[in-house]
Structures are given as structure tokens and as C-alpha cells.
């Protein structure tokens, strides 16, 4: 069993900052990529940012230059999303995602429960 536990969401004013955290735990053998997606009501889930085990980062176009994904230096199963210059359109539920190996030849996608980020004055 694999769990992704997110934290750090909340309410922030436009122009403000938040940092999300996601910790993976359980019966995982290796992590290939971890990242963040978001989904607003009535919209499709979209990639925010992801980071591979080798450190390659992929940012969504709407957050380039404002959001930064990173991995904990001491614990590679923890990733962060630093969100700066937040805009009302960033309001969404943010989901942690991981693609990882849980057994010999067994690889799959796992999701966190989601954390709400609301940007409003």
C-alpha cells in the first residue's frame, strides 16, 4: 500500500505565497517521478510541475516563473511546491502524484487526496 500525504494548502491573498508538501510512504521500491496537478471546478486536471528521480523538472505553462518544485535533500520521497505571486486563477484543488515501482515489474500511478488552495482578497 502506497500513500501520498499532502499538506500546506489554504487561503491566501493575490500576490501571496504558499508552499505545498507531499510525502510518499508505504510499500514503494523506487520513485520515477513525483509532481503536482490541479483541478478547478468544471475544468480538466492539469499538470502544475513534476520532477523525476534524476532531477528533471517539467513545469506547466501557466505557472512558469512563479511556482517551483523541489525534492527534499534528505528524503527523496518528499517533494515541495513553492507557489509565489499567486493569482485568483490559481485557485484549485492540488493533487500530489507519483509514478513509482511497488514490485518486480510493477509500476503505477498514485494520487494524494488533494489540498485546496484558494487565492482571494
Please characterize this protein's 3D structure.
- The chain is mostly beta strands and 121 residues long.
- It has strands at 2-7, 10-12, 18-26, 30-39, 46-52, 57-59, 67-71, 78-83, 92-103, 106-111, 115-119.
- Strands 2, 4, 5, 6, 9, 10 and 11 form a seven-stranded mixed sheet that branches.
- Strand 7 and strand 8 (78-83) form a beta hairpin.
- The chain is elongated, with a radius of gyration of 14 Å.
- The termini are far apart.
Helix-strand blueprint:
Blueprint: E1 2-7, E2 10-12, E3 18-26, E4 30-39, E5 46-52, E6 57-59, E7 67-71, E8 78-83, E9 92-103, E10 106-111, E11 115-119
Parallel strand pairs: 2-11
Antiparallel strand pairs: 1-3, 3-8, 4-5, 4-9, 5-6, 7-8, 9-10, 9-11
List keywords for this structure.
single chain; 121 residues; 7-stranded mixed beta sheet; 4-stranded antiparallel beta sheet
Order of helices and strands: EEEEEEEEEEE
Radius of gyration: 14 Å
Helix content: under 10%
Low-confidence stretches: none
The 3D shape can be described as: elongated
Helix segment tally: 0
Strand segment count: 11
The helix-and-strand class reads: mainly beta
The proportion of strand residues reads over 45%
For the biggest sheet, the summary is: 7 strands, mixed
* Averaged pLDDT: 94
From the N-terminal CA to the C-terminal CA, the straight-line distance is: 40 Å
Task: Kindly summarize this structure in a few lines.
The protein is mainly beta. Helix content is 0%, strand content 60%.
